[in-house]
Amino acid sequence: MPSRRLVVLILLGFASGLPLFLTGSTLKAWMTDEGLSLGTIGLFSFVTLPYSLKVLWAPFLDRYALPGLGRRRGWLLAMQGAMALALVLLARTQPQLDLLRVVVLALAVAVASASFDIAVDAWRAEALEQKQLGLGNSIHIAAYRVAMLVSGGLALIVAQAFGWRTTYLGMAVLTVLGMAGTWLAQNTDAVAQAPRTLREAITGPLKDLLQRKGIGYLLAFAVFYKLGDWLAESMTIPFLLRGMGFSKMQIGSVQKTTAMVAIILGGLIGGWMLTRMSLRKALWICGFVQAGSILGFWAISLLGRHLPLLVAANTLENLAYGMGGSAFAALLMGSCNRSYTGTQYALFSALMALPRTLFAGMTGFMAEAYGWKLYFPICAAAAIPGLLLLLLYDRWGLPEEGQS
């Protein structure tokens, strides 16, 4: 793979992953510091709803181009600018005085981030050849996860030392710096032509999917494969901060050291697996590892506040994320029709994010009702439906290259 493309994959992957925690667990940590109830904090999960609804406006990004940089690159640059502006305004907000302003600006970040994801996923599918998808996705996901560690672990450290305003301003600066990836990216307009009309951009991708045999199994799998992960992740930070009494410095230090190594290693392992075994087998292995990683936090709830346990649980969770993310992205991207990449991949990834928004919104109430010692086993059990769908893999009607 050319070095320039490698740099672009890293920069765009980082830019894509940075906003997620800033509207998710890091925002919840901020609200925890503000003294909000667990129920209210859990409701903040609905702020990330645009990640599940982005398929509604994906056809606009497939059909129309902003002037100057081409269809994909134009939208990438515009959404990075919008994210940076919203983060600056969010940093200047006082939650205790205007909680609604926090919600509106966090939603703005999420909408811009979800739109950026539409464009970057489509760009990746168009810029990479089929044989490069596995490696390319591994690189993208590793950079994505490193960005999440920066906006998660490092953000907590900065918040404890300098406050939340400085933290969010710093993340806005990183968003601006990420624009370099957009400038370096190749223009893919010649690789995949835009739909001729908006109607074609809307109906074409859906018609293509609905005509496929077994598409229902694939769509269901996109919803349930990471359900347990999303439920556990939704309340992990409140659990560690309020439930177990770890400091922001401890959590952030673990996430920016061992967890960062684990996610990179997990991505490399996932990419290697895809070159050595069938996609189906890789999904099986990664699915079990993902479910097992949730039980690391259950062990903390049973055994108490011990830093080595936090290191082990966080390392396993990030290793599992890197492995599973590579295989899952290869499955979904390989299932897209190149004529409608933006909308179809947006649909797949929106379904994947659906549990994180709709189901995760109630996780605070679940934690209050059942307690932490039951909460994480319930999350692990939520991974079972996705694994069961793998038993029907032969009926999904995947293209030949997706079946490996």
Please characterize this protein's 3D structure.
It is a single chain. The protein is an all-alpha fold. The protein has helices spanning 3-22, 25-33, 38-43, 50-53, 58-63, 71-91, 99-127, 133-162, 164-177, 179-184, 198-210, 215-224, 227-243, 248-256, 258-276, 279-303, 307-334, 341-359, 363-370, 372-381, 384-389, 400-403. α6 (71-91) runs antiparallel to α7 (99-127) and α8 runs antiparallel to α14 (248-256). The protein is globular. The protein starts with a helix and ends with a helix.
Distance between the termini: 21 Å
What is the CA-based Rg, rounded?
20 Å
Tell me the major beta sheet: none
**Topology, number of strands:** 0
Strand percent estimate: under 5%
Order of helices and strands: HHHHHHHHHHHHHHHHHHHHHH
Mean pLDDT: 87
Q: What would the keywords be for this entry?
A:
77% helix, mainly alpha, 404 residues
Question: Topology, pairings included?
Answer:
Layout: H1 3-22, H2 25-33, H3 38-43, H4 50-53, H5 58-63, H6 71-91, H7 99-127, H8 133-162, H9 164-177, H10 179-184, H11 198-210, H12 215-224, H13 227-243, H14 248-256, H15 258-276, H16 279-303, H17 307-334, H18 341-359, H19 363-370, H20 372-381, H21 384-389, H22 400-403
